Amino acid sequence: MKTIIEPFRIKMVEPIRLTTREEREVILRRAHFNVFQIPAADVIIDLLTDSGTAAMSSEQWAGMLRGDESYAGARSWYRFESVLRELTGMPHILPTHQGRASERILFELVGGPDKIIPGNTHFDTTRANIEHSGARAVDLVIDEGRQPSSRHPFKGNLDIEKLGALIAREGAERIPLCIVTVTNNSNGGQPVSLANLRAVRDVCHRHGIPLYLDAARFAENAYLIKLHEPGQQQRTARQIAREMFDLADGAMISAKKDGLVNIGGVLLMRDDDLAHRADNLLILTEGFVTYGGLAGRDLEAMAQGFQEVLDEDYLKYRIASVKYLGDHLTEAGVAIVQPPGGHAIYLDAAAFCPHVPPSQFPGQAVVCALFREAGIRAVEIGSVMFGHVDPDTGEHTPAPMELVRLAIPRRVYTQSHIDYVIEATVNVFQRRETLRGLQIIEAPPALRHFTAKFDEL
Ligand code: F0G
Q: Sign (positive/negative) of CA torsion 289, 293, 296, 302?
């Protein structure tokens, strides 16, 4: 069968209010052309993020009711711990309320001035937590990873030569650990191969440097390995995921992605002494070591989610659905970051509207057009998010790429919703020369993309 079907049926529905084009015009203007300022009830298809937006299964909801809310040693904790132990083999399992809480604890322990933390591409919050500790975050993704049109199957890979050169230049004693993000969200949700993980592990261990995974999307990475890495086709996603964790000395997981929950995180470690110190920090700001800032019911939902996400039928559908979106847009001539990754499609906005210069935010122009056309909320990952304006000269430094992310929440939208997104994007693309640039009329000094106000030029 060629038709992609969801390997689940729908038991509970949440209505979507279908707005008219006139209503959307008012909504967009009221939000000053910033989709972060639009109430979710005014959005038809919300592709802002795949984080914390998953639909839970009937078994997860049943687990929520079974949740044991005891302060210490709750039944739900033991279930969560045993699922994570089997999945990852890690001896120390710390629950946290989300990914960045794991990051904060880890970098408070290993970061600090003069330290350097290499990675393929650090996610924003990871980088921010590293820098907050005083350390320096260095991205060492392979060159193909920075080229939107390259079809390398593992564009998330870390460049081994660059890693070796960094260690030789800076000294291993300044590098407390190395992080590989799977899949690599910041360059298009691109996977990392097992061969690359083994090579990174070998270089790191030769210099006594621990290897950590940022494993928010570990299951999607495992399935992309199964599809594209030579010799992996006969293995299960679960076996591949276990090998990924076996190669690592620890991991941070935001469970809001492949944990299939709306809130939750995990910090995993092999080092007894480090884990002991992490426990103390966890108690200080998150909660006791058997609940870590979560309710017992959240631990139940996570335990179940981490099992369900490795279901081969689910992963086959998930990866196929994202690829379907990417392939249809490509066929229509829309430039995207190739090949389609695990959780999102990234439109190349610079190619989409070449008549809008980076200083007028082509990505934001596409985001506004998608909302006007069909009530779709996407997010700009370009010069609004990463560009800089010199406060003295007013000179604009653009971001390296002008992208628009269409992140697909897990198990939330059907294939007909995906068809709707394709139709809307292609419609906008066909009259792309009418898209107008924007200017910022008001912005805070940091993280301006959340609250900046725009005007159309
Ligand atoms: N690491 C990666 C690779 C992520 O994508 C995220 C979050 C985090 C860590 C932080 O996890 O949100 O649970 O604290 N990514 C979201 C996104 C926000 O939209 O891509 P968190």
A: negative
Residue 98 in contact with ligand 1 by CB distance below 6 A: yes
Residue nearest to atom 12 of ligand 1 (CA): 99
Angle, alpha carbons 381-384-387 (nearest 5°): 100
Determine the atom of ligand 1 nearest the C-alpha atom of 407: 19
Q: Which residues contact 264 (CB under 8 A, 6 or more apart)?
A: 95, 96, 97, 98, 255, 256, 294, 298, 299, 301, 302
Structure tokens at 70: 């005891």
Of the residues 115, 122, 256, 257, only one is catalytic, namely 257
Catalytic, out of 216, 255, 275, 349:
216
Please pick, among 8, 55, 78, 124, the residue that the annotation labels catalytic. Answer: 124
Structure tokens at 5: 């079907």
Provide the greatest CA pair distance for the chain.
62
Average pLDDT of the residues in 37-44: 98
Rounded to the nearest integer, the mean pLDDT of the chain is 96
**Beta carbon of 290 within 6 Å of any ligand 1 atom:** no
The arithmetic mean of pLDDT across residues 44-63, rounded, is 98
Q: pLDDT digit string (tens) for 82-124?
A: 999 999 999 999 999 999 999 999 999 999 999 999 999 999 8
